[in-house]
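Q: Predict the assembly, please.
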Amino acid sequence: MGKSLFQKVWERHAVRTLPNGQTQVFIGLHLIHEVTSPQAFGMLRDLGLRVAHPERTFATVDHIVPTDTRLRPFRDELAEGMIVALEQACREFGIRFYDVGSGHQGIVHVIGPELGLTQPGMTIACGDSHTSTHGAFGAIAFGIGTTQVRDVLATQTLSLAPLKVRRIEITGRLAPGVYAKDVVLHVIRRLGVNGGTGYAYEYAGDAISALSMEERMTLCNMSIEGGARVGYVNPDEKTFEYLKGREHAPTGAAWDRAVEYWKSIGSDPDASYDDVVRIDGRDIAPTVTWGINPGQAISVKEAVPRPEDAETEAERASIREALEYMQLTPGAPIEGTPVNVAFIGSCTNGRLSDFREVARYLRGKKVAPSVRALAVPGSMQVAREAEAEGLDAIFRAAGFEWRQPGCSMCLAMNPDKLIGRELCASSSNRNFKGRQGSPTGRTVLMSPVMVAAAAVSGRIADAREVFGI
Amino acid sequence: MALPKIVKVQGRAVYVPGDDIDTDRIIPARFMKCVTFDGLGAHLFHDARFAEDGTSKGHPIDDPRFQGATILISNSNFGCGSSREHAPQALAKFGFRAVIAESFAEIFFGNATTLGMPCVSVSHDSVLALARAVEADPAAELTLDLEEKVVRTGTLSVPFDMKPGARDALLRGEWDPIGQLLDGANDVRAVAERLPYLHF
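A: Predicted assembly structure:
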């Protein structure tokens, strides 16, 4: 019986069985940012420890960095303090910091791949649950807490238990106007927000092979929203092509050795899995959320559920709570729901191909007067490349604000926030209560092209009709 | 590193009902602008507890009957969402020492147990039975017995599940792994020697 990529990577990185019964696992790449990491350096200092492998940790700022002005000090003193703490820690411990001055600052899950830091067959950890993004390259990548950030800094290892592996095959071709975002929302809808607990998700099948690397990142990014801490795609020629020539990618003879290793760690054709799920890609439509978790999703053509249609009292209670918060009518179509804000960005959908795809359809269109629209590139490199192609001009002409890179309105730890009960059509990853900065703000998750359709229409709309896709 | 063995947690409990209570609900992101975890307790469940004008919404943890509760009871997929350790830290700083729920999100579970806060899973019916007991007598003490894998209060006793590794680590006082990880330094070097991508 063959092995899955997860098993192969796990075995290569397993150091030993710890007295606590878990496995000590080597971490190949550690990424840190200003919100969950400064406290870990404090713990390190308290214990009198050093950073074991400063060359394997890379830092940037993304969560709290303002996207309107970069003038220091930031107006928000607390935000300024967190960034200063990270700057000091990086200097003290000799960690490479991709700050604004480096020209490569950006959302940690955007810059890792674009710098070529993220590579197949690695273990990757970061104090952020969307670290699963890096699984797009065939890495085992997962979010960790701050105490674990301390563990990686001090030892370059973590104490972990192995995961089961569920292969999710998406067969066939996706229909026009259907994107990786729709695929992952569909998967979470079907398997549940906790269906992946204890599992790594291996995404496979023709529809997945056909996805670009950036779309695979969108897919793996939201694995955690389905409860799976890890999601990955086996590496292929697209993976290698994406990495070639990037700053931290190997070159010359080292490149050939790297490709040899990367090819060797893919799942064997006869690998065994703990579970297999097959979904026909042709069944997936543009998908939007209607509730307060990412599993509460429907096709844009469906009606919002009615509590009485659910089977258990717990489900009925969940639907009632979600509908009350979202102020939606049970049984009414989701299409046509007025939106106040449109947000395109985040570690889920803030990459060059996202802005390119939207620009294709946005050219010559206008954002509805009632809508505040934000486009926030995921990194300085994404911004430079988009601007070089004139994409920023298309967004601005349509009525979008074109901002500086950061997490922005995905979690609103910066000045970009919803106000009151505003409803946001958002390309981000979480529609939790209060997620976008207002305790009563409402989020409807969807693909960037669907956000553009909502922005132009002033309402949740089917992008295929709005843009003639 | 010598840590206390966590064999039993005893205390009064409070029931916070709901499936999928996410980490943004437990500690909204805007309160994470801090370089230590010390002040997080005040903001636990903030937006579920307080209206925007600061008035109380009557959240169970603010109910006078449940003041001083140290055990939180909830439903399925507790702690889903982000990896923020701020969530279990906020619970701990508020005074909670254990969580009983139908199930837990994985990252939250790991973060909480690494802080020495047991997270134990019981059936849906057991959650409701415990909630009824607590509601009937808020002063009643619960005992979470990690050796016997049961939660007891009065005449009620319900079994719980917990990942064996995490439970053993609490029982043996080895819930913070840093000491054991540091002890493995020689083996770590050997693995690093063998990893292809460190030597391309």
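Chain B touches chain A through 67 residues (CB under 8 Å). The longest helix of chain B spans residues 124-136.
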